[in-house]
Each structure stands twice: as structure tokens, then as C-alpha cells.
From TrEMBL:
Gene from which this protein is expressed: recQ
Originating species: Neglectibacter timonensis
Helicase ATP-binding domain ranges (all copies): 24-193
Protein name: DNA helicase RecQ
EC number: 5.6.2.4
Helicase C-terminal domain: residues covered: 214-367
Residues of the full protein shown: 1 to 420 of 615
Amino acid sequence: MTKLEILHRFFGYSSFREGQESLIDAILSGCDAVGVMPTGAGKSLCFQIPALLFPGITLVVSPLISLMKDQVNSLVQNGVRGAYLNSSLTYSQYRAALRNAKAGVYKLIYVAPERLLTPEFLDFAAHADISMVTIDEAHCVSQWGQDFRPSYLSIPEFIRQLPKRPVVSAFTATATPKVREDILQLLALQNPTVMLTGFNRQNLYFEVRHPKDKLAETFRILEEHPGKSGVIYCSTRKAVEEVCSALIQRGYAAVRYHAGLSDEERQSSQESFLYDRTPIIVATNAFGMGIDKSNVSFVIHYNMPKDLESYYQEAGRAGRDGAPADCILLYSGQDVITNRFLSSHAEENEQLNEEDRALVLQQTEERLKAMTFYCHTTGCLREYILRYFGERSSAGYCGNCYNCNHLFREEDVTEPAKTV
Ligand code: ADP
Ligand code: MG
């Protein structure tokens, strides 16, 4: 089969998107490869298609159990032989999956990074025919990134222990230049083909408001988007509860989503929103990973997120269909304080040693500052974001953000001024 036949037959798509085909070609030619593409660009296919064409197994290192489950389930539904190995399996399930893997049942095996250097897994890997190791969410290897996972650092050691070096590919959506460098170095990629597709999403309109009353402002925004589908992100569960109740009281159909709810309620909120039964979802950042809904016409941030990586990822869930969509952030000084509090109490930092933790906190603070400046800049908001991600845009004027449409125009009043 060719890669195009696989695209049709297993995934049901008729053509490749920007960047996919050349990455797939590079990987199939035996090159290491890195794909830096925004969320929703379609990075999974870039390793799944080569995985189906390679003679051996592809291991996919992935940081989140829920992400592994979703991806493997949809592969299996499409008729691809896939499995995952992580802590959601009981020991006997894990053993059984490894036995199947040894017998060559799977083409793609998703594995948690913590498993790689365990004796059982190493023993399997030593005898398996591994064609490729793919590292998804590769920014987790970097302390400069937002989701540093120390266990990602063991990936190159695992690869070194394999009898034959496989092709290594890495994918991420959030790569500032420093993180990108870390990915190349810390994962010990060899002469990789790097594919960087544009982060710009011209159909997204950006605006920051500094309202006295965020709830009243939210109602105002909703009135500007009658009947449209949208997400309202809040930084705490409590805020989700308050905003969602206020909306319902006001007669809006809205569902809530945060990690404090039962699995059933979260599932039902998510589906209700995805299938257009309820237009508005009020959520913490627990909502959205791997969500693929095309017709989201606005994303309101009721609170400023902790960094631009999070902001752009969350705001970027709007307008996937290419239609104009609004990304509006409601800023208050309190948001800075809340974020500082949340990051100093972040659970994921507890496993780090003191030195690492200090470093991570320092990076977190830097990112928070950059996020806060975004909320205060009078320059082009899009340019600010793209520059942060290391993309140079020449214009400094995008014509589709509040600052371009209002602040710049105010400076350009020479003609009316003359007539006064
Ligand atoms: P990423 O990992 O880059 O965030 P995913 O790999 O999860 O993105 O893909 C996002 C969505 O785009 C998925 O629903 C996927 O099936 C879809 N998709 C990927 N490639 C194509 C394509 N060539 N044509 C149409 N849809 C695609
Ligand atoms: Mg992905």
C-alpha cells in the first residue's frame, strides 16, 4: 500500500494537510524527524502512517493515559493493530499485552515514559523488531517547557539499549526556540528533518479586556455571539461553578467541566458540547486535550492562563473549521496572583529535587510575565504571540486583533485632524 492508500483506507481522508506528507516521506526514508505543528494540525498521522508501512513495531511515547486511550481506541476502530502499556492496566493485563506484543500482534504500541527502562520492557524491546520510536508531546523533555516530565529524559538511554537504532521521530505543538533546541539535543536526534508549520491562525481574532465586572462582560460577549458554540475557560473549579450557574440562571444552555466532577458528568458535558446539544461549556484547562470540534466560534478566558503556551492552545480550539472566531481574554490583576499560587502548589513539581524545582519555578514565573505583558501590550496581539513562539512576522500589524483594529487606528487621525 502507498501512504495515500493508507490515508484513505485507515483514516478516511482524501488528502494530506500542510507538512504531513514531507514529514512522512522523511521518516520513511529512514531519517529522524521533528514535527513542530500547532494543536489540531494532524501530527498523529505523521507517525501513524509510517508505522503502518514500516516492517516492524512503532513505539509511541506519550505522557497522558487519557491521550493514549483515545488514540489507541480510534486506531483500533479504524482497523489498525494498536495497544497501550501504562499504569491503567492491571499487572496481568500488562503481561498479556506484552506477550501479544512479543508475538507481533501490534503495529503501534503506546507506552508511558516511566515504563521504558523497566527490566520487563527492556527485555521485550531487546527481542522485538522496532522500526521507529516516536515521542509525542516532545516538549515534555524540556525544563523550559510547560509540562516537564523527568522520565522523558530516559528516552535516549532506552534507545541506546536497543539492538538496532530505530528511526526516531518527535512531535510537539508548543515549542519556543529554547524548547526546540532541547528536543533536538536531549532526545539525541541524529540529523533530523525538522518540519515547522506556521503557528499563525489568521481566522482567529484576539482581544484582551480589563473589565471591572467579568460576569457582566461575559454576558456582553455572549450577546455578541447569539446561538454560537463556545468555551469559557476559568482557572479554578470554583469559578467554573459560579460562571456556569450564572449563565444557566440567565437562561443560557451551558454545561460545566472540571476535574472535581464524576467521570460520568464530565463525559456527558463533553459529549453534549461536542454534538452541539449544548452550545456553551464552562471549563478548567482539564477540558480540551485531544478534543476535536470544528465549529467553536469563541473562546473566552474568564481568567488569564499561566502562560502563552496554554493560552494559545486553549484559544486555538476556536475556529478549527477556518471560519472567523473570537478569542477574548478577560484580565484582572488577581489572575496573576492566582496563577502564582497555583504554580507554587503544582503537584507535578513535587517529584523534582530542590534544584530542579527552583529552576522550574523560575521558568514558570518568566512565562507568567510574558503572559501578563500580552494582556498589557498595545501592539499587535497576534504578532506578540507568534514572536513568543519564535516566528518572525514582518508586519507588526495583523488587522485581525483588537489592538490593530482600534489602537492603531486612533494614531492615524491626521486627516480628520486637519479639517478641525
Ligand atoms: P495534533 O496531534 O497535531 O494536535 P491530531 O493528530 O490529533 O492533531 O489531529 C487532529 C485532527 O485532524 C484529527 O481529528 C485528525 O483525524 C484530523 N486530521 C489529521 N490529518 C488530516 C487530514 N489529512 N485530513 C483531514 N483530517 C485530518
Ligand atoms: Mg497530538
